[in-house]
Amino acid sequence: MWLTLLAALFMYSKASRRIYRSFLIFIILMSLAETAGNFMAYKKIHNHFYFNIYYIIQFIAVPLFYYYNLQSVLFKKILRIYFIVFPVFVFMNIAWWQNFNQLLTHSFVFGGCIILLLAIAYIWQLYVSDDTQSIWHYPLFWISLAYLFYYTVSVPYIGMLNYLWLYDPGFTKKYYFVFNIIIILHNFLLITGFIWMRAQPMKQQLS
Amino acid sequence: MDESPANEATIILIASTALLLLLVITLVIIILFQQKRKHQHRQQLIEIQNLNEQALLKSKLKIQEDTFLAISQNLHDNVGSNISTAMLLLYKDEHISSEEIEGNQKEVLLILDKVVDDLKNIARSLNVGYLENIGLNDAINNRVEQLCRSKKYKIESTMNSMPKRLNRQKQLIVFYIFQEAVTNITNHAQAKNIWIYLQYENDKMIMRITDNGIGMEHSNPEDIYRKGSGLINMKNHAAMINATLDIKRKQPGTEIIVTVPDPYL
Known about the structure:
Number of helices of chain A: 8
Structural class of chain B: alpha+beta
CATH topology of the largest domain in chain B: Heat Shock Protein 90
Distance between the termini of chain B: 75 Å
Structural class of chain A: mainly alpha
CATH superfamily of the largest domain in chain B: Histidine kinase-like ATPase, C-terminal domain
Shape of chain B: elongated
Number of strands of chain A: 0
Strand content of chain A: under 5%
Oligomer: heterodimer
Distance between the termini of chain A: 45 Å
Helix content of chain B: 55-70%
Radius of gyration of chain B: 32 Å
Number of domains of chain B: 2
CATH architecture of the largest domain in chain B: 2-Layer Sandwich
Number of helices of chain B: 5
C-alpha cells in the first residue's frame, strides 16, 4: 500500500491526463486514510465506523472515475442513477439493517458489485475499440484488473464478515491471509497502471 | 460431519470466491488472447496498407518516368524539328526573292504557333497534379495525341464522359495500366493500329486497349519475358483496387480489358 502511495506521488507530475492526476490524488489520500485506519486497529481502537466512511468515499469516487472514462451512454445513465441510489441505500443500511459502528457489509456488497461491473465494462470497451494501441498500454486496463481481483475476493468475504466473526473467528483470521494476497496483487496492478499513466511519446504517423 | 451454519458459510465463501476468481481469470485470459489476435490482424492490415502505398508510389514514379520519356520524345521529334525548320526558313539568301521571304515568314509563324502549343502541353504534363487536374480522359487523350504525332500508329479512342469524379487511387492505377499497356504495344507489339475504349457506368468502368500487333505467341522470348513482367505488374496493380484484368488473344493482336468496380468510391 505504501509502495502504491509512493508510486502515486512519483507519477503525479508525469501523468498525461488531468483525470489521471485526480485519481492519483484520490489514491494518495485513500492510502493515508487506510494507514490511519490500520493504526487505529493496532492501537485496539474500534475502526469499523472509520472504514465505513472510507468505503463510502471509495464507492462514490471510483465509479465517478469510471464515469469519465467509459464511453457507453447506457453505463453513464446507470452511474447517474447509482450516484443517487447508493447514498439512499447507505442511509437505509444504517437506519434499518446495520448500525454505523459495525461494517456496512450490505453497502460494501452493493458498491463492490458496481465497481466489478464497471471494471468489466471498461475492459470490454477496450476490447471492442478500434484503437491500434495494445490493451496493455492503457492505465485503466491495469486499474480495472486491480479492482476486478480485489472485489472478486472482497465482496463475498466482507459481505459475510460480520456473520463469520460471530460464528467462526478462527477461519476469518486465516482467510484474512488470502485477502492480503489479493491486496498485494491489487496494489501491484495499480502501480502498473500508474506507470502507464505517464505521457506516451506520439507514434509516428505514416502519411 | 459437522454441518454447522459457520461451516456452511465458509464453504459458501470459499466456493463463491473460487468460482468468481475463476470466472474473472477466464474472462481476462479470453479478452487478452482475443485482443492479441485482433492486434496482430490490425498490424497485418497496416503492413498491407503500407505495401499498397509503396506500390502506389512506384506507379506514380513509373507514370512520371513515362511522362518524361514522352516529353523528351516530343521535344526531340516535334519541337526540335519544328524549330530547325523555322530556322531554315528564316535563313536569308541573296537568291531568295522578297515574295518568298514573306511566304517563309508566314510559314514560320504557323510553325511557331504549333511549337507554342506543344510547349504548353509539355508544361501541363510536367505539373505534379497533372492526372488529378485534367482527369483520366484528358490524360489518355494527351498520350494518344503524342502517339499520333509520331505517325507510327493509327489510334482510335472512344470514351464517354464520367458521371462523377473518379477515386484518386483508382484513377492513378487505371492510368498506370493504360501507360504500361501502351508501352508494351509501342515497344514489342509491332502494331499499326490501336483502339482505346473507355466506358463509365454507375457501378463500374471498363477500359479496353486493343492492338493489331504480332500478339504474345509471335513475340521473341525476351519480349515475352518483358511483356510478361509488365502484365504481372498490371495484374497486381489491378488487384490493388479490386479490378479485374483480362488479356485476350486476337487475330491479329492482343486485347487488354480492365474492369473497375465502384470507380467513384
